[in-house]
């Protein structure tokens, strides 16, 4: 069938213009020649306003999660906004204990953004969604005037199925539980900071952006579902802030051993240079697990057996503390609080 | 990386801690002031206090450039952005310092018409200069703060701006001098008897000015100074050295940070600073009041790049919040938890005073790292 337009989208040197978001022929062309082609699945190909999806298996419940992505720069070592948009939402579902099933994607594009770069982003997003087996089944495109956006914003929503018996939740940590992390902290945050501020480091620091669904499945395969009390991905605010969220939700405290927390030597060195703390930097492919002490060994072994959890470590325990303080035994042997992030992490002046 | 680990080794730290406990005379108390915010931060962040005996007390000093910046100076920068439509560039922590009318640079930024004015965070003076070059239609003012460490980079951009004949760039200079602040602490008339037994001296500052400028502390005031690096082991080692000096009845300028600090410092940097800056007659410090010859001003040869001259600014002092104890805390007379606002009205998210802004400020350091010590916590 011949399309009802004559000239194909100029994906080499064309740019986003206001027509691409106006809902008319140009929008349809962008969707079919770029988005539908890249994501390529029957729901999207239908071109309807929504996707009709099968209900989950009996006993399972639906989980839904939304995520907005406004990262700058759009491309960074180890990923880009496209793959990040997939991983972010897949991980939100995974840490709920759910198997991610479908994604939606809304693109907010800035007038003038090169179509070639948009294609790179969409292709990367499609590759990420294919790799994790979670199709983008519906979407939307809007264009804002030049100066009113930052190139590309992507909002994703994910739907997943929660198998019966699983119910990890931030409020379920109990005194005595063990706190595990799946690998080194702060890689994503430092990778972004390094390109944004064009800091030249000896070796490249890469984002850890990755989908955690498979890692979570192997964890549930190794220990009884009730043993997994809390799962979280420590994104913005880093490990420190996520631990504080869990402590507050659970009405407990924590005691963390600084020496046990894995941090990539290059990230540590860069943090040192900038006066930043890696425990407050974002991660996009790491898992925090709070586990009942009896099964902590098996949980740690399961994490370590998976490529995304090779660097997993046991970093501390949940304590009884009405103030919900997260305390850190420093590598030096002293004690201090590992508090919430306040404001943006900032480098030191003097 | 190796470099960092060596100075955070737990074994070594416990060893130094033991030596301090062994050598500190149980019959007396020791009170040392760590002048720099960097040391305050290291002490809190690594829990150094837990490794010291009860009778060795560390007192936070005024050496955080954000903490000593008075309200009136931030008001000046906000005024420039709001009324004169300039783009203010400054270091991150400055953005959150409380100013008049419940504002801060960060809050003022939300009110600006961004097509005309802006407030931006930069990592260095050079970033501000680069912005001015990149966007010639924008009037860029670099709000420069800091002790001797950050002064040479500011001097450098002023020289570069002059060489380039850059018309849309200037510096609002708030560089202050360490020795003047130490004098103020030692002579403060209101000091309600903080008996200081010595100072942990500035690290980065001394890489520029050397250790010589502190000679007067020993000669005139008979207090020991040990210049120390910012790693926790540096701080602990310097505390041990101070304890020994006190025990021996010595008061000398010692240098623990020999891997970076020499007696004369960096002569080239000093010459650069002298070329661009002269002494201000007087400068107001938060908490310490107006101190003579305690800050730098841009020399007349560079007046075209001096924001105060360029925009005809004059300084008007503004009182701090009535209940804020920043002054007494910066002078070592009170501790953060002694302030009525601490942790209730005043938190890192809603700072009432500047000590709660930077993580090197005494109040923020205690809030973020140490406030569990104020309450009894049940262990697991
Ligand atoms: S708690 Fe706040 S108001 Fe009180 S002294 Fe500290 S900074 Fe000032």
Which keywords apply here?
heterodimer; A: 350 residues; alpha+beta; seven-stranded mixed β-sheet; four-stranded mixed β-sheet; globular; B: 380 residues; alpha/beta; five-stranded parallel β-sheet; four-stranded parallel β-sheet; 15 helices; 37% helix; 16% strand; binds iron/sulfur cluster
Brief synopsis:
The complex is a heterodimer of chains A (350) and B (380). By secondary structure, chain A is an alpha+beta fold.
Summarize the topology.
The complex is a heterodimer of chains A (350) and B (380).
Chain A: H1 25-39, H2 42-46, E1 61-69, E2 75-76, E3 79-80, H3 81-94, E4 99-110, H4 115-132, E5 136-144, E6 152-162, E7 178-181, H5 187-196, H6 213-222, E8 228-232, H7 238-250, E9 253-257, H8 265-274, E10 288-291, H9 296-305, E11 313-319, E12 326-329, E13 335-337
Parallel strand pairs in A: 4-5, 9-12
Antiparallel strand pairs in A: 1-6, 2-3, 4-6, 7-10, 7-11, 8-10, 9-11, 12-13
Chain B: H1 2-6, H2 10-23, E1 30-36, H3 37-45, E2 56-63, H4 71-83, E3 87-90, H5 105-111, E4 118-121, H6 125-134, E5 140-146, H7 151-164, E6 169-175, H8 178-187, E7 198-201, H9 204-209, H10 215-221, E8 225-227, H11 232-248, E9 253-255, H12 267-276, E10 277-279, E11 282-285, E12 289-292, E13 296-298, H13 307-310, H14 326-330, H15 362-370
Parallel strand pairs in B: 1-2, 1-7, 3-4, 3-5, 5-6, 7-8, 8-9
Antiparallel strand pairs in B: 10-13, 11-12
Helix pairs in contact in B: 2-11, 3-15, 4-5, 7-12
């Amino acid at each position: 069938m011949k399309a009802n337009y004559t000239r194909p989208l100029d994906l080499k040197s064309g740019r986003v213009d206001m027509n691409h978001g106006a809902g008319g022929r140009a929008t349809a062309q962008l969707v079919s020649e770029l988005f539908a082609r890249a994501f390529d699945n029957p729901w999207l190909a239908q071109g309807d306003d929504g996707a009709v999806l099968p209900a989950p298996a009996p006993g399972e419940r639906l989980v839904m999660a939304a995520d907005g992505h406004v990262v700058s720069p759009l491309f960074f070592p180890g990923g880009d906004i496209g793959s990040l948009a997939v991983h972010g939402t897949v991980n939100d579902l995974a840490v709920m204990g759910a198997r991610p099933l479908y994604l939606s994607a809304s693109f907010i594009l800035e007038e003038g953004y090169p179509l070639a770069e948009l294609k790179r982003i969409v292709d990367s997003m499609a590759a990420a969604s294919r790799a994790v087996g979670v199709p983008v089944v519906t979407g939307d495109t809007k264009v804002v005037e030049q100066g009113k956006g930052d190139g590309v914003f992507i909002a994703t929503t994910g739907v997943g199925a929660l198998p019966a018996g699983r119910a990890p939740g931030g409020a379920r940590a109990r005194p005595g539980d063990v706190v595990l992390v799946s690998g080194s902290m702060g890689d994503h945050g430092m990778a972004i900071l390094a390109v944004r501020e064009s800091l030249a480091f000896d070796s490249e620091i890469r984002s850890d952006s990755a989908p955690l669904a498979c890692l979570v499945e192997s964890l549930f395969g190794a220990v009884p579902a009730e043993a997994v009390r809390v799962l979280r991905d420590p994104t913005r605010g880093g490990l420190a802030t996520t631990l504080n969220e869990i402590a507050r939700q659970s009405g407990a405290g924590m005691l963390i051993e600084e020496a046990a927390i894995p941090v990539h030597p290059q990230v540590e060195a860069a943090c040192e240079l900038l006066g930043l703390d890696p425990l407050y930097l974002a991660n996009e492919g790491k898992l925090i697990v709070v586990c009942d002490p009896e099964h902590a060994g098996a949980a740690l072994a399961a994490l370590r057996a998976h490529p995304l959890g090779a660097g997993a470590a046991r970093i501390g325990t949940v304590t009884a503390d009405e103030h919900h303080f997260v305390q850190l035994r420093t590598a030096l042997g002293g004690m201090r609080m590992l508090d919430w992030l306040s404001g943006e992490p900032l480098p030191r002046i003097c | 990386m190796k470099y960092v680990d060596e100075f955070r080794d737990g074994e070594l730290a416990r060893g130094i801690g033991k030596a301090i406990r062994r050598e500190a005379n149980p019959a007396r108390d020791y009170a040392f002031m760590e002048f720099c915010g960097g040391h305050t931060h290291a002490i809190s962040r690594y829990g150094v206090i837990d490794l010291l005996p009860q009778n060795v007390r560390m007192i936070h000093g005024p050496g955080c450039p954000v903490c000593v910046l008075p309200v009136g100076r931030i008001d000046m920068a906000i005024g420039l952005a709001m009324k004169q439509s300039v783009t203010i560039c400054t270091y991150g922590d400055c953005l959150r310092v409380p100013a008049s009318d419940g504002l801060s640079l960060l809050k003022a930024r939300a009110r600006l018409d961004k097509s005309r004015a802006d407030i931006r965070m930069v990592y260095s003076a050079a970033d501000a200069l680069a912005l001015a070059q990149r966007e010639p239609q924008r009037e860029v003012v670099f709000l420069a703060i800091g002790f001797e460490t950050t002064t040479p980079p500011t001097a450098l951009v002023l020289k570069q701006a002059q060489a380039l004949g850059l018309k849309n760039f200037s510096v609002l200079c708030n560089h202050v001098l360490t020795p003047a602040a130490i004098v103020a602490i030692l002579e403060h008339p209101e000091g309600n008897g903080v008996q200081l037994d010595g100072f942990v001296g500035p690290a980065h500052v001394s890489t520029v000015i050397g250790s010589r400028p502190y000679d007067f502390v020993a000669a005139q005031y008979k207090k020991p100074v040990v210049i120390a690096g910012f790693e926790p082991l540096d701080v602990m080692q310097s505390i041990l050295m101070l304890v020994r000096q006190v025990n021996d009845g010595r008061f000398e300028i010692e240098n623990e940070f020999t891997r970076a600090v020499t007696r004369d410092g960096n002569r080239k940097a000093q010459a650069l600073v002298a070329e661009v800056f002269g002494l201000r007659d007087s400068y107001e410090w938060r908490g310490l009041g107006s101190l003579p010859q305690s800050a730098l001003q841009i020399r007349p040869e560079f007046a075209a790049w001096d924001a105060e001259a360029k925009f005809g600014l004059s300084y008007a002092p503004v009182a701090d919040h009535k209940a804020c104890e920043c002054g007494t805390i910066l002078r070592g007379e009170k501790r953060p938890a002694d302030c009525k606002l601490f942790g209730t009205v005043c938190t890192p998210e809603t700072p009432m005073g500047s000590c709660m802004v930077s993580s090197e400020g005494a109040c923020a350091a205690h809030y973020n790292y140490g406030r569990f010590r104020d309450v009894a916590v049940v262990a697991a």
